[in-house]
Amino acid sequence: MTYKVLIIEDEIPAAKRLKSLINKHFAQATILTTLDSVEASVHWLKAHPAPDLIFMDIQLADGQSFDIFTEVNLLSSVIFITAYDEFALKAFEVNGLDYLLKPIDIQRFKQAVERFTQQSQTPDYSSLLKELQTPTSYKSRFLVKQGDQFIIVPIDQIAFFQFLDGYTHIFTTHNQQFVIDESIESVISQLNPSIFFQVNRKTILEISSITKISTWFNSRLKIATQPNSPEDIIVSRDRVKAFKTFLGN
């Protein structure tokens, strides 16, 4: 039997990794296409027959992939993909649905695929959506360690997060800098999406920290911030459209 598979993933390296795993370890699969946003996914799913299986990243450039379910009557099985979202993972486990954590482990991938091929019917996602659509409390502060002291950094004092030299750094509106032991992917899942936006793989901006937006090479944007960033902040081309939507909202 051949299974028609759709990939919904906005990070190019992650999409390539997923395609490689499917080609090597899911011989019965035919990849239909790869989509990188909620908007593109809704448009494609409304225009095409439902695939058998969707590998769906939770955090997309223009929102969470759960928004797709509110626009489309999804008849496909879904394996969710996430860098880390404790709330979502608990919801998946309670509802018996499958998920993969980034970076995707080969054995875990094989288990998820085997589980899909053995299921007799498409899971019911209604309970999951009801649970996930319950209002979420976003992180209000970060606890950081500096020397032998612990410091509380309120969220309203954070200008941006940036991954530098192997660590995630907090840059505050008071021009302070702190290191935290969390990935950029973990951080973005805890923040209010109406005021924070991940512009590329390394940087998350708070909207009021932006002082200037300029056009850049290859249809990208360059961002100036206050305080200044130690590195140029470039909005990746695949996130430009979602970034403009974020600014307009």
Distance between the termini: 45 Å
> Biggest β-sheet, characterized?
5 strands, parallel
Count helical runs: 8
Rg computed from alpha carbons, rounded to a whole number of angstroms? 19 Å
Q: Beta-sheet strand percentage?
A: 25-35%
Query: What is the oligomeric state here?
Result: single chain
* Coarse structural class: alpha/beta
**CATH class identity of the largest domain:** Alpha Beta
Helix content: 25-40%
- For the record, the CATH architecture of the largest domain stands as 3-Layer(aba) Sandwich
Task: Classify the fold: give the CATH topology of the largest domain.
Answer: Rossmann fold
Shape: globular
Number of domains: 2
Spatial sequence of strands, sheet with the most strands: 2-1-3-6-7
CATH superfamily of the largest domain: Response regulator
Q: Which regions are unreliable across 5 or more consecutive residues at pLDDT < 50? A: none
**Element-by-element helix/strand order:** EHEHEEEHEHEHHEEEEEHEEEEEH
Using DSSP, what is the number of strands?
17
Please give a quick description of this structure.
The protein has helices spanning 12-25, 38-47, 66-71, 86-94, 106-118, 126-132, 184-188, 240-248; strands spanning 3-8, 29-35, 53-57, 59-60, 63-64, 77-82, 99-101, 141-146, 149-154, 158-164, 167-172, 177-180, 196-198, 203-206, 210-216, 220-225, 233-235. With 249 residues, the protein is α/β, with parallel strands linked by helices. The chain has a five-stranded parallel β-sheet.
